[in-house]
Design goal:
Blueprint: E1 5-9, E2 12-16, H1 23-45, H2 49-70, H3 77-95, H4 99-124, H5 133-143, H6 145-151, E3 161-165, E4 171-177, E5 180-183, H7 190-201, E6 208-212, H8 218-226, E7 231-235, H9 239-248, H10 252-256, E8 260-263, E9 280-283, H11 285-289, H12 295-327, H13 333-340, E10 344-348, H14 354-363, E11 369-373, H15 374-382, E12 389-392, E13 413-416, H16 422-426, E14 431-434, H17 440-449, H18 460-471, E15 475-479, H19 499-503, E16 506-509, E17 515-518, H20 520-532, E18 540-543, E19 554-555, H21 558-562
Parallel strand pairs: 6-7, 6-9, 7-8, 10-11, 10-15, 11-12, 12-13, 13-14, 15-18, 18-19
Antiparallel strand pairs: 1-2, 3-4, 4-5, 16-17
Length: 566
Amino acid sequence: MNDRKVYKTNDLIFEIRGKIGTMQEIFETTKITLNLVNEIIYYTRIQYCNYVSARIRRLTGYLDNIIKEISAYEEYSVLLQEVWTSLNAILQAQENRDSVLLADILESDLTPQLEQIQQINMQKIVIDYKTYWEKNGRALKIKNSALYNVIKEVKENNSEISIVPALNGQPTMKYVAEQKELTMHSMLNPEKEAEVFSRAYYNELVLTYYIWGMGMGYHVKALLKQSKQIKVVVLEPKLSILKCALEYLDFSTELEEGQLQILYGRQLLKELTSMSKEDQLLIHQPSLEIMPECAEKQALENYFVSFNSINEQKRDLDNNFFLWQKTGLSEATDVFRDKVRGKKLVIVAAGPSLQEEIGNLKKYRKDVMILSVGTVAQRLIDNGVEPDFIIMTDAWEGMYHQIEGIKKTNIPLLVLATASFSVYKYYKGIIYLLYQEGYDKAEEVANRKEYPLYSVGGSVITLALDLAIQSKPDKIILVGADMAYTDGKEHAFTNQLDGKQLENGRLVEKIGGGYVTTTKNLDIYRKWIEKRLQKDVDVKVYNVSHGAKIHGTVETSFLHAIEDME
């Protein structure tokens, strides 16, 4: 269209001269603009003012073009006025240096308007995404000709994969696995989602990242943008996914410069053995979900759960550690070892079968020392079983609820030096600290003060076991260490779970034969215990629980454990 056209809407009159953009061009411009808006919102919220100013100038240019182009089409008539109003509001907020209002306008007004424009575009045009295979292929061929030769033979029409437009116009991927369709990237804004991923996991001290799962590569691209100094190694077991990623996103520069390396093969986990301690493994969770059930998937799931647990609690761990150090509390080892060395030590966990052993704990109370997890300490006391020690590890602020009702002042509480500081205010008795391996601040204090370090293993029972083993009791007896949904229950003194809650669990060997359902987390702790029992253990560990089998323990009854009858 090259004719002059005048278009009027309310108080706006546009006179368009020259070529008017096609809907395909409007689609492309809006796609770029949405990503720019998302970027400006983020940097406005974190107060990078100079960074924002330069991008606002770009944004107003894009919006000016969009307004002029959509004014030529009746389909956008309502949105034309709205976008125009938003543009003026943006300029006014920028002039007033009102950054909070600016971000609000971009997020609550302009973004939905641009998304509506994209919805109209996607209804009217056949989206023709640019392909980058030739460009990426040339770069890949130079760096890894063997992989290039394999990928180039992959057929484009793959029934497992569908490429669909996200709401912002970018291509995103859906994958059909085991008759279930899974979304690999955001259907709203895959680039925005990827930026959240990269900001969460980028660490200035890490120079090499291994990422399990390519997807379309948005998360890979976003991480690479964080620094030119880092290298990303992607491990992807599906060629069809690699082909799609190299079709729809441009990785040519990163491949040419050696910043990106792609690994493919059937035994990719072996590649991780080349990782150094300074490298970081990240998991693209949707890529993990589409894997068939196998030992490799379980290993990756275990890592993913453990890594995220630490990552999510990092700020709480640091804050709690700082506060505990200010108290000047003593370290726990000497007190605990003096009490339990050479004696029968019972570790009481919160598994369902604990309820069945309350009678035995009362009957043989004088014959054993009891170390109870915080979750069930009050229950034990209420049932006439007073523990010798209570142990707590969780950094969660609400942990004090476990002990706030305990009136006894003669039971020492052992807390991890990163555990919730909230318990300090509420516990009436004496508190001792424990220091864990793998947390740099704890290791620094322990090394300086010559304290022992303990392996946490991700759970209070795993720490309790390591503490017990290092303290050299006569024997260790595990009670309530079910590590599974015994009789359909998650914990002692709770109701049965419904069938839906049990559906997605793992099946593991059960004590006494058969199988029992467990969770990923409980299975991780169970396997940790098994590995711990394989090294440096000169004390026999009895398991009188009724849940998952823990290899390395002696499965028996409470009476037999007390009397050494296997």
